[in-house]
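Re-run requested by the PI after the first attempt was lost when the workstation crashed. Everything re-entered from the original request form. Ligand of interest: 3,4-dihydroxyphenylalanine.
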Amino acid sequence: MSQTQLNDIKQKALKAFQAAQNSTELYNAKVQYLGKSGALTETMKLMATLPKEEKPQFGKLVNDVKTELEAFYSKAEDELKNKEINSQMESEKLDLTLPIDIQPLGSEHPIYKVTNEIFGIMARLGYALRTGPMIEKDYYNFEALNIPKNHPARDMQDTFFIDETHVLRTHTSPIQIHSLENEKPPLRVIGTGPVFRCDSDISHLPNFHQIEGMCVDEKVSMADLKGTISFFVKEFFGPGLKTRFRPSFFPFTEPSAEVDCSCPICKGKGCSLCKHTGWIEIGGCGLINPKVFEFAKVEYPKWQGFAFGFGVERMAIIKYGVDDIRLFPQNDVRFLKQF
Ligand code: DAH
């Protein structure tokens, strides 16, 4: 092993160190030359073959090359590591001044807020919550509510038909029948949910919500109905509001009435919401028609009852002064956040 050969190894090692593009390549080069079975270490092993007097000098030479290569290596390693950190920082750069994309928080939908509030009020009067299917049998939506086939009242309800015997329920009144069939009087139930009618304009949605109340007991009169609804209106809209009944017709109640409350916006003086009448219609009500009890196999007149049905969107519109019913199903957070 001559000095030239040693020099040759050194030059090759330096070249390899310089050529390394990243710390892995550099490390591999280090193993190749300075590692346990690397080129330089191999030359150390040749020492044994040298004459005694040449050993110290050769040993020193190899050691010097080793020290020099190690120094070069550690410098190159530092440089590469720095380069790598810099390019990593460059590629993962965060611009802390960029405006963040905040996901708006949702909020309770006014329809559910109103519904829950109504439940709260009615629960205090002993009413329990009931539901029913949205796809309803013709029997429950019409027949058992004393609306036979070809009855003109069916036309009032712009029905979506599923098939010969099923409809999308047009009102929550079928919940009354389910409850009468499944439970024993005395009963106080409140039902709610979406209802569907083939109708759409500034004050009508094809899919809206109703709330249905029913009380069945031994002696039930219009006075009980009026008292219950007046209490409910005051609790829901505010203490100063009045309630009035207008005679009306529903096949499932007799007598029937439409319920108006004095306009909560103008307090009865007249404004655009109440169309300058001072009154706003919120729904229908009446004493349960004996025919309905007959369909549901409930003994009449032992058991008598009243029922009422209100539009939930309507109540939300009145309570919050919303001027377009179509805003409710849009679910625009800017709208929903206001409630
Ligand atoms: N179901 C009726 C409708 O949707 C509203 C209604 C009227 C419900 C009178 C009742 C009631 O419970 O007694 O037009």
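Saved to the shared folder this time. Residues 106 and 310 are 27 Å apart (CA to CA).
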